[in-house]
Specification:
- This protein is α/β, with parallel strands linked by helices.
- The protein folds into 3 domains: 315 residues, Glycoside hydrolase, family 3, N-terminal domain (TIM Barrel, Alpha-Beta Barrel), CATH 3.20.20; 182 residues, Rossmann fold (3-Layer(aba) Sandwich); 113 residues, Immunoglobulin-like (Sandwich), CATH 2.60.40.
- Helices cover 30% and strands 20% of the residues.
- It contains 21 helices and 30 strands.
- The strands form 7 sheets. A 7-stranded mixed sheet has the order 1-2-3-4-5-7-10. A 6-stranded mixed sheet has the order 11-18-17-16-12-15, with helices on both faces.
- Helix 2 packs across helix 14, helix 6 runs antiparallel to helix 15 and helix 15 crosses helix 19.
- The radius of gyration is 27 Å and the shape is globular.
- The structure holds beta-D-glucopyranose (BGC).
- Beta-D-glucopyranose binds next to loops.
Length: 736
Amino acid sequence: MKGQAGMTMLRYALAISLGACAVMAHAQATTGQPWKDARLSPDVRATRLAAQLTQDEKFHLIRSYYAARPKPGDKPVPPGAIGSAGYVPAIARLGIPALQESDAGLGVANSDKFRPGDTATPLPAGPVTAASWDPQVAYRGGAMIGAEAHSKGFNILLAGGVNLMREPRNGRNFEYAGEDPLLAGTIVGEAIKGIQSQRIISTIKHYAVNDQETGRNTINAQLNEQAMRESDLLAFELAIERGKPGSVMCSYNKINGDWACENDYLMNQVLKRDWHYPGFVMSDWGGVHSAAKAVNAGLDQESAGETFDQEVYFDASLRQALAKGEVKQQRLDDMVQRILRSMFAAGLFDQPQQKKAIDEKADLAVSRSTLEAGAVLLRNEGELLPLNATSLKSVAVIGAHADKGVLAGGGSSVVTGKGGNAVPGLAPTDWPGPVMYHPFAPLKAIRTAAPSADVQFAEGKDVAAAAELASHAQVAVVFVQKWATESVDAPDLSLPDGQDALVAAVAKANPHTIVVLENGGPVAMPWLNQTAAVLETWYPGGDGGEAIAHLLFGKVNPSGRLPFSWPRDLSQLPRADLPGATGGTPPASVDYNIEGANIGYRWYQARGIQPLFAFGYGLSYTRFQHGDLKVVTRDGRVQATVQIKNTGKHAGADVAQIYVQVPGGKVRRLCGYAKVFLQPGEQRNVSIPLESRLLADFDPAQHRWVVRGGSYAFVDGRSAEELGQPVALELPAQKL
Ligand code: BGC
């Protein structure tokens, strides 16, 4: 024994000294700057670097500047800034790179405002990516916009919008991923992972319960702890786990009485304590209201306070708070540690930023394939679609500037694509405008797809002329639009500019009328039953016209499924009124306890209401047959298996949606999903691991997720309403 122990000791000593040699050799390369050693963990590197910082340098890192290209009267762009939403200057002495922050989740944004002439590739709206029900689509889109951001010299993308769709009128629904915590959390988490694969820090935002724009800077969102953990916060939790974003952006609103950016429960207790989040919290622009309270509640960096906050709280006021002992030095050090740690983790120190040309064709292909995966076919009477390009003689294309381009949502996320705005000058041209049409015209793409057809266009303002054109065509394709934008909500679900009358007239003139929707959220469709087909594209993004033509002509089989329920009218919503949305002073608070965690389809189920289209709904050009659902427990995880067969004539993709009703629960919750691509006649067994937090309830008293135990009813659905046979599984009571 002794001898053996001696040998072990010798080997151990040898290993240590060999290791020490390697470390010493490397140390010579990073002499004086041990944090440059890329073999060390981001935490260790951050600690070593932080130890070198003076107090002023620490203060330097905890605030950013607005870096807009100045108009007369604006503050000058800080030297060294590319020109974007946020900038933290470099600390050259220690080799700390500047932070160059750009919006947002649908591409590198604001280029016209900040960098005239500079363009980027716009992704389709967030609900498109969510409607793909395909995490790989989300990752690819994230990696594309991350690479573009990197090649322009940015290292933070203000992306990762994951606020749940409590309010279908919310002006920012087009930046988010729908109403369900599992779908939104996994899709947005994957998009963040894609962005961060490109040496870019991504944010996740807007933390939290910033679910409407009306009164966003003042409103107090009321929501009890259990409901919050099981809905809005669960989406964040899942996305953070999956994507590991370097930063969390706290939102403008109040939650249960405290501003999001000084909310101890959200930042300290949930994010940092319960979720062990190691990154930093940055404020939304204008979201800080104090120094000591915000810092002690967990805010780590103040964004552009010199432009958007009452004062730069994280400078003189914070220094005073430190001096008075209201904030501890340890907490300031923690803020710095978190910022540096995220910079190391994303690789910001290890490869200098290199400006590169963008591969426009490849990037547009990513956008196009995103819409092809996420557009939702809502209606297809008599299987009018797909159109047959060879037999089609004539098409009337009508409305929504389809001769020029495709609409985008407005506000800080708007991207200027190559070719600029295809329909400039539409009001509002200033914030929250401009109204942007990306120059990817559906008309041109339809002409290319059906070269032997006579394809004519009517702009649609003259309803009679449009109907007349439609009456002479074999099919009519009517494009309708509803612009949505950050900072305001839609007062109702109606289409603007008399478009309902336009669709009704065209549909009356031609029974083969196809409607293509460009919108941020659900809209009322009083003409629905008069039309033959409806395709939902939200905001289609780069190469949108081409993708739409591919879908209409069957080059691509639609496989998107709605990431939100589509109400028939406002009376079906938890809050039929949205006071303040049409002007006037918004109320001081909004009561989200009405529906609590039962957002969207769960609300409809709980109330026994039939929406117009259910969450998860979407048609295909082929048919799928689902076999019996099997649910088993394997290695402590519940797993579902279902056989799916393509019984139709087209290749296509279907989504298995697994819903669970927990014992005593009144509604079903999505707890797992998988998308599968099948050739005609092909069948496959799809195995789906189920998310245990969707089988559990959050118990605020025990402060954890609790599986109640008992008989769980699982069901495989084609949507939240179109369900197979339920399968029961006994699960033991358990704490997660
Ligand atoms: C928005 C954020 C955005 C920031 C910077 C704010 O108004 O809410 O989403 O990232 O501006 O442009």
